[in-house]
Amino acid sequence: VYILEKELKNIKYINGALKRIYEKTYGVCEICGEYIPANRLKIIPYAKYCIKCKEEEEKRKRRRK
Question: Which of 38, 39, 44, 49 could form a disulfide with 54 if both were Cys (CB 3.0 to 4.6 A apart)?
Answer without folding.
Answer: 49
